[in-house]
Design goal:
Elements (H helix, E strand, L loop, with lengths): L1 E2 L6 H10 L1 E4 L10 E5 L6 H5 L3 H12 L2 E7 L2 E6 L13 E3 L2 E6 L10 E7 L6 H4 L4 H5 L14 E7 L19 H16 L6 E7 H13 L2 E7 L23 H5 L10 E2 L9 H4 L5 E4 L12 H15 L10
Parallel strand pairs: 2-3, 8-9, 8-10, 10-11, 11-13, 12-13
Antiparallel strand pairs: 1-6, 3-5, 4-5, 6-7, 7-9
Length: about 325
């Protein structure tokens, strides 16, 4: 893994913008460039504009299909970067990189000997709010916080790994796409390298997330034979009454859940703790899979964010698992 170089200097960051070629919406665009800018005659970034008119939607789809990701908006210009150049745009010092994936590692203050360390892997969800879904800032779309202070709820020496789902406008749920068949391997490699760095055993690794992140955590727990503790796995983006966001569904990851999880039906049956209220129509596929705990949607607030009950519920289960004292129940 490599440290992502930060462009902390405003002068350096401004140079990046000056080197970016700017196009109007009707121009012929050179799709081989690392970065491009799209100037609109309105006070919206191209993503927001795509919910308002078809020309913008068509251009956004073309850029998305050619590996460009919206990352900034300034002076009526929407800035895009190629996925494999994502490591060049940041003004932060905490990012690491493996392959084309970026991630962060939070170490506890009481980092102990290797045999005492555990690892929580956090997978990002869909954007939390309408404003986030329409934001030009990439972290608000593909790297929203889930349980930002999770380390303070987990006992012992726990490392928290957060992986960015940044292979397209809204990510790919950390799953392979037609144009990128190495995503799943890269994610598993990141987990393996962090495990090796800190001397963590596989039985001390827990994958977690909500909504899209929950589906990803479940899937990668099956791939790597890890435990997952997830909330409300959902494969589709919810517009929650915002009709204009329906236009963005085309840019969301397409997850054929039945197909992706089919191979795991053949695995040896283990225990799954399911909520009384079905969270997702995965019953036929998931119930016979590896150790997974699904917390119910009722733990969420009306705005879709998890509340204190969910934090407590997640952390209690994780702590019990790490202590090897978990009680599996509600197995029907």
């Amino acid at each position: 893994m490599e440290i992502v170089k930060s462009n902390q200097s405003n002068q350096l960051f401004n140079k990046i913008f000056k080197r970016t070629k700017i196009y109007r919406i009707d121009d012929k665009i050179d799709l081989t460039q690392e970065k491009i800018g799209i100037e609109l005659g309105e006070y919206h970034n191209l993503l927001k504009s795509a919910t308002l008119n078809q020309d913008s939607a068509n251009l956004l789809r073309k850029l998305n299909d050619n590996g460009y990701i919206l990352y900034w908006y300034k002076n009526r210009i929407s800035y895009f970067v190629k996925n494999d150049k994502m490591n060049t745009i940041w003004q932060r010092n905490d990012l690491l990189q493996l392959g084309n994936f970026l991630f962060t590692i939070n170490e506890p203050e009481n980092l102990g000997e290797s045999e005492d360390n555990s690892l929580i892997v956090v997978f990002s969800s869909y954007p939390n709010t309408r404003a986030d879904a329409l934001s030009s800032k990439i972290t608000r779309r593909v790297f929203p916080d889930f349980f930002s202070n999770i380390d303070s709820y987990i006992i012992g020496s726990t490392i928290v790994l957060r992986i960015m789902d940044s292979c397209s406008l809204y990510g790919s749920a950390y799953m392979n796409t037609k144009t990128n068949t190495e995503i799943e391997t890269n994610v598993q490699n990141i987990i393996s390298e962090v495990k090796e760095k800190y001397g963590i055993q596989s039985n001390k690794v827990i994958l977690t997330g909500s909504h899209k992140g929950a589906v990803a955590a479940l899937y990668h727990s099956y791939l790597g034979n890890y435990v997952s503790v997830v909330c409300d796995p959902q494969s589709e983006f919810e517009t929650r009454g915002n009709e204009d966001l329906a236009a963005l569904i085309d840019f969301m990851p397409k997850i054929d859940v039945e197909e992706k999880f089919e191979d795991f039906r053949k695995q040896e049956n283990k225990v799954i703790v399911n909520s009384a209220t079905p969270c997702m129509d995965l019953d036929g596929t998931v119930k016979n899979l590896v150790d997974s705990i699904i917390l119910p949607y009722e733990y969420n607030n009306d705005d879709g964010n998890f509340n204190l009950n969910l934090r407590v519920g997640l952390s209690v289960i994780m702590n019990q698992w790490l202590l090897k004292d978990i009680c599996m129940s509600n197995n029907d």
